[in-house]
Amino acid sequence: MAQALVSIQIIPKTPNGEDVIPYVDKAIEIIQNAGVKYKVGPLETTMEGELSQLLHVVEQMNIKMLELGCPSNISQIKVYTRADQQASMDDLTAKYD
């Protein structure tokens, strides 16, 4: 399959109602260790790569939240693919750089 973009905002319910940021940081570590191109934004992180690989990263992020003791988790995901060319963060944002 062609290159895809997947954006994810992960919203864990923390075990004792503590701040979610340290948990989100752990989720972003999963992305960093996946070896895919990514960009962290203020409300979501966008990854670029093969769709199946990116969805696996999303799965691993959710598993990590459970391992950290979160009783539940919401993942808001956007997927972008193109039939005529590779999906690219750079192409989509070039006019703003």
Description:
Pfam families: Thiamine_BP. This is MTH1187 family thiamine-binding protein. It comes from Gracilibacillus marinus. Belongs to the UPF0045 family. The chain is elongated and about 45 Å long. With 97 residues, the protein is of the alpha+beta class. A four-stranded antiparallel beta sheet has the order 2-3-1-4. It contains three helices and four strands; from the N terminus they run βαββαβα. The mean pLDDT is 94. Helix content is 37%, strand content 31%. The protein has one domain: Alpha-Beta Plaits, CATH 3.30.70.930. The relative contact order is 0.30. A hairpin with a 4-residue loop joins strand 2 and strand 3 (45-50).
Structure described in brief:
With 97 residues, the chain is of the alpha+beta class.
Q: Topology of this structure?
A:
Layout: E1 3-13, H1 21-34, E2 37-40, E3 45-50, H2 51-67, E4 72-80, H3 89-93
Antiparallel strand pairs: 1-3, 1-4, 2-3
Helix pairs in contact: 1-2
